[in-house]
Amino acid sequence: MQDVPLTLQMVLERATTLYPRKVVATRREGGSQRATYAEVGGRVNRLASALTQLGIRPGDRVGTFGWNSQRHLELYLAVPCMGAVLHTLNIRLPADQLSYIANHAEDQVVFVDASCLPAWNQLKGLRTVRQVVVMDDLSAAGRAGTTGPALPGALDYQDLIEGADGQYPWPTLDEHQAAAMCYTSGTTGHPKGVVYSHRSSTLHTMAALFADTLAISERDTVLPIVPQFHANAWGTPYAALLTGANLAMPARFMDPANVAALVAEEGVTFSAGVPTVWFGMLQAVQAGAVDPALLGTLERIVIGGSAVPEALMRGYDELGIRVVHAWGMTETSPLGSVAMVKSTTQEDQVYRTRLSQGLPSPGLRVRIVTEDGELAPWDDASMGELQISGPWIAEAYYDPEAPDGRGGLERYDQDAQGQRWLRTGDVAVIDPEGYLRLVDRTKDLVKSGGEWISTLDLENLLIAHPGVAEAAVIAVPHPKWDERPLACVVRSDPNLAAETLLGYLADHLAKWQVPDDVVFVDEIPKTSVGKFDKKVLREAYREHALPNR
Amino acid sequence: MQDVPLTLQMVLERATTLYPRKVVATRREGGSQRATYAEVGGRVNRLASALTQLGIRPGDRVGTFGWNSQRHLELYLAVPCMGAVLHTLNIRLPADQLSYIANHAEDQVVFVDASCLPAWNQLKGLRTVRQVVVMDDLSAAGRAGTTGPALPGALDYQDLIEGADGQYPWPTLDEHQAAAMCYTSGTTGHPKGVVYSHRSSTLHTMAALFADTLAISERDTVLPIVPQFHANAWGTPYAALLTGANLAMPARFMDPANVAALVAEEGVTFSAGVPTVWFGMLQAVQAGAVDPALLGTLERIVIGGSAVPEALMRGYDELGIRVVHAWGMTETSPLGSVAMVKSTTQEDQVYRTRLSQGLPSPGLRVRIVTEDGELAPWDDASMGELQISGPWIAEAYYDPEAPDGRGGLERYDQDAQGQRWLRTGDVAVIDPEGYLRLVDRTKDLVKSGGEWISTLDLENLLIAHPGVAEAAVIAVPHPKWDERPLACVVRSDPNLAAETLLGYLADHLAKWQVPDDVVFVDEIPKTSVGKFDKKVLREAYREHALPNR
Question: What residues contact residue A148 under an 8 Å CB cut-off, 6+ apart?
């Protein structure tokens, strides 16, 4: 067989040769900017030439600091395909974390959206960044130079492209070399970098095209709401390019009205994002703020990042839009599992199945390891840490001190066959059909008198109560039981009493699972990616006196 | 990233763990035999144990000589997953070719369907086969032992399985090691062996699941009419297993009535085979011999192996069954291209697009190289040899003399980047949208006065004439023009005259493209895989006196 490496050059070449007339549209103030894949291909050649002129060599890191856009897409193609490493910086992280990350990754050139310059300018002590390129997403000309660069010494993206050679000699790449990296905003310690290889990214791209995963097709127009700095927008840009789907990029216009307008203008069929965004859209539709007719072309939305509430899924079902629940993490590239419903599923189990974290993608394997290190049976009840194995699963975090850039921060178990399994930190069960259900994060579980209590289950119950807007459950130290659950609740009904809520929970749970107390708060603290920051809550309520129940 | 090899063990594990209740049904005299993938998995473990007991070691070749069946599927799984090499012998080849092939591949153990024993017993001079295992597909017991083995010294498959250990320790495999091999029945010289690696087979399996290729899904029940000894039934068994589709195996019952009954009984949604088979089915339906209601669940059929006539496609369209045209060859694993219709295709171009050889699968690249060694533009007119590149494309035939089993019989061009391209021997054009159209085999082209004439185009025109049942066009030596076309025609209308046909062709072609003569024959000679054997025709008409037109 031919020794053809699996690299993202496949994606670049296919999009530009087989689908030259397909389009990426980027939402701008007062309309969208559109370019064909042929045009993108020409610009990607120029971008690679320009980066070479800027001294970027194979293996060098090129950072991005911006929203989803055509330009960000061009960087997705040029940087890995020239052998350099794309590093998507999360614009929502605090400045000190971002400085740490850019220094740790040793970013040399960083591409910054003009609208993100205020945030970028907060970064202090950058030791390796020697050039900033501004992508003007504010002016009609789309060129920072027209109003003067907003940052001294910065280059303008459009000038850079136009001044560069349109013929770039793409090198032959090794499929195991680094293509991109992404830092996880962990809740403990410094952020950690995950390095994607060309092989892992290419296989991951293929996995999004399977009929039983995301089934992205040439007929689709794909709108990634999930940012390109979140695990590569879940791989949707590469998948769209490989199979010739159009792309619609929201840039910073992610409010329901703008997203709905983009859907209608571009004929979006497929979208992807976290539950919060889609909750906002559903509420806007239900409140009459967004005309549901604007969403008429939208067929399916992939939701991940945190569990999908049943009400959200049913709400979109009523609009004729199918919510597909998927699970993954930065360390899994991120597509890990998709809640595809088997044709053999009983009618009354369909929603339960759709709300699960789903089946591992073809190419991946999952297992549950108990506290004792034993493999748990697939009985939908035996809990343990979810572990996952496959060619697009990380086995270590980036460590510049390690000889090959890895090895210092491993997070895996090894089985008897020598196969490595990523320890996800999620507590899960698997049912006899292979469907995965996350129970909790290992560190969020409440360990009470030798039993585990899932805070996720409690939160799902709480949020289903009509008087509750948000709820997070945490473990609080307890002299007798070691830990006991405490519910932190944002009320939508100001008259809701703690006793009422506890009574409601008692109707649905075993007695020992019911939280010992409820505290009402104004809001639940969130991390930079919008997840509950339970570390902050645990700190705040560490000494909370639980009533004696 | 984890270093997880791409091996067919992924297919075995996924089918048995995630889809244990899915079914493979095998057509038998008077009904079907069914087994779940869990049962198949158990038997595959026993089969691997038994093969180990028979002395099969990593790299050893295990032959099969039989129809599509559950047992053949078990061999597809056990042999590669234990590190041995599956060699599917084409039961339709002449005995001397088969003996050559089995010796060349050095098959050690061969599994033979009882119904194929008469053919098998014709093989002479086998030097390496030391054990035959009979798969009884004739008796109700399915066990050769019940009536005494039909071949002295042969073992019975069912006895072998039942006597073996159910726990087989699957080894860790290298993705580049050989998984299977298949010989091409070339029209010149000895048959040549193509060796598939685990990597190539696994990627090829994934490629059949893409939404824009075959889109095989868990909801499907897949019926491979294409034999398991033809390029692994085009990869459909592995694809079905990987994504959890049911399988329906026709065994030797491939007449329209039996196929229709199998479709109805198993609820087949997807099938695959050469045009001849599907022509037969359509004729049976049109003649009232097969009730079209039996085909009610059938959604799509992939047709390849030779070009699909438009009448065939339209005939199935009327039945509500979508014909998907695909192209490939043994050397391409075989999935090369699929005639998926882009959503941007103009309405009046849809059939022309569906009848083309299609777009290369994601992962593959195609190009056209002219006689001068130049790359032809994608203008739908510039002809040249089709070349193809990708991780499941062969670069050499099996050569036991070469140190690594390859290198002696290469058939590729190398480009400036060092990438190898398989020379397919097909003459083709590519249109601006990337759709491939085969014009002819290089050796079948008529080279007339410096111009190329496609015999395939002429044949398509001839077959569209109502008085023509079959037609093959060949080159005949010509003193002035070098070569001129001669049409060999099987009439359905016995009164059809040569002049009438030539006049019809002249209405559709440039004068120099019209054949110089027509000869009427009783039948067109065919190769063992049912293609026109033009070598025989060329030999017979080498000295045919062309009239002076």
Answer: none
Predicted local distance difference test score (pLDDT) of residue A291:
98
Active site residue A531: no
Under 8 Å between Cβ of A74 and A43? yes
Interface of B with A in 331-350 (CB under 8 A): 340, 342-344
What is the Cα gyration radius of chain B? Answer: 24
Q: Tell me how far CA of residue A51 lies from CA of A35, A84, A175, B219, B416, in angstroms.
A: 21, 9, 21, 47, 23
Check if A200 contacts B (Cβ < 8 Å).
yes
Which of B4, B172, B389 comes nearest A4 by C-beta? B389
Query: Residue B343 carries which side chain, given as an amino acid letter?
Result: S
A344:B390 CB<8 A = no
Which of A276, A397, A261, A380 is closest to A329 using CA atoms?
Answer: A397
Q: Name the minimum distance, in Å, from the CA of B49 to any CA of chain A.
A: 18
If residue A339 lies in a helix (H) or strand (E), which one and from where to where? none
Distance between A55 CA and the closest CA of chain B, angstroms: 23
Among the partner residues A172, A209, A417, nearest to B210 by beta-carbon distance: A209
Shortest CA distance from A199: residue in chain B: B1
A447 catalytic residue (yes or no): yes
For residues A442-461, one letter each, b for 16 or more C-beta atoms within 10 angstroms of the residue's C-beta and e for the rest, the string is bebbbebeeebbbbbbbbeb
Residues of A in contact with B211 (CB under 8 A): 209-211, 215-217, 243
**Residue written as tokens 């939404």?**
B211
Within a 10 A sphere around the Cβ of B270, how many other Cβ atoms?
27
Nearest CA in chain A to B7: A363
* H/E segment holding residue B32: strand B31-36
CB atoms within 10 A of CB B336: 29
ipTM rounded to 2 decimals: 0.89
Average confidence (pLDDT) over A507-536: 88
pLDDT at A31: 85
- With an 8 Å Cβ cutoff, are A18 and B210 in contact? no
Q: Which of B1, B215, B390 lies closest to A391 in CB terms?
A: B1
Beta strands at A192-197 and A178-184: parallel, antiparallel or unpaired: antiparallel
Alpha helices in B449-497 (DSSP H): 455-463
Q: Mark yes or no for CB contact B2/A389 under 8 Å.
A: yes
What are the tokens at B441? 């085999």
Q: Evaluate if residue A66 carries a pLDDT over 90.
A: yes
Domains by residue range for chain B, with CATH = 9-338 (3.40.50.12780), 364-441 (2.30.38.10), 446-540 (3.30.300.30)
Higher-pLDDT residue of A415, A176: A176
Task: State the angle between helix axes of B9-18 and B70-81 in degrees (0 to 180), rounded to the nearest 10.
Answer: 130
